[in-house]
Design a protein that fits this description.
alpha+beta; Nuclear Transport Factor 2, Chain: A; 4 helices; six-stranded mixed beta sheet
Amino acid sequence: MSAGSLPVAGIALAAFFVGIAAAQDVPKLEPQDYLEIRNLIDAYPQILDNCTNNGRDYADLFTEDGTFGVSSTWGGGGKIWFRGREELRRAGGGGESECRPRMESAGYHLTINPLITPTPDGAKAVSTLLTIVNDTDDRGDIVHWEGGYEDTFEKTADGWRFKSRLHVWPEIEWTDRPEDMPPRNLADE
């Protein structure tokens, strides 16, 4: 080995050990953590599509300071539409004293293929979102791809909760507020 290659080898070796140390900073998730996070992801559409407890069950899926937002770009941040328990309760269908009536042609959410990974602060996941509308027409029941979710999770005293949930749908130009979104007709899409 030449004298010039020793510093290069030393730098490469140091970078290798720094990489190992950085990887060790991320705690491992136990199998039970994966099951609990997956259960949280799977509970989300059921609770969202069937408002219960005046939206409180939806809000309970999140941390106290949890957020729900939207984005047109994967990994690009987003617009926060709902922050904290009261806004999340209303997002989950809660009204003044009871759940708001469900829309007649509302779709049902299907969250599939979550990829859960540990982070220094908990965990994160990316998943795919499909909706199905119980409104059979000449095409049958419509199953529609609606992007997916980017989630961050935090383990609380009550178990794993969403710290943030971002609905990413590249086909949509999201507005700053949900009430400004134009109505959709899946049959046209």
